[in-house]
Amino acid sequence: MLGLFRTARKTRQRSEEAGWLSPQSGGQLLQPPYRQQLIGALWDMCSMSRQVFVDYVQAPIERYAGLVQEWPASESHHHAYRGGMLDHGLEVVGYMLIRRHGFNMHKLTGT
Known about the structure:
Elements: H1 2-17, H2 26-29, H3 33-45, H4 50-68, H5 84-100, H6 105-109
């Protein structure tokens, strides 16, 4: 039975050596300094408590990171590199927050 675990570990190592990538958690994928900088910028643009930010912004971003892993965003255009889809998604959220800055949602809803 324990031999199965050793075999799985060896198989994982061989697949990484062959160019395959192992899945990572969203938190791990968001650790590079550039992504931490983007998360920090998102926090700076949000007017909410830290806990609300973590629950309603950072947690969904971590789930998104877990889904897209290290996919490129395209084959030959911008973000055409390993992890480009995640960087693209973070940048789009940042641009959205910049665009909405100063826009009052209450005017739109009438409340």
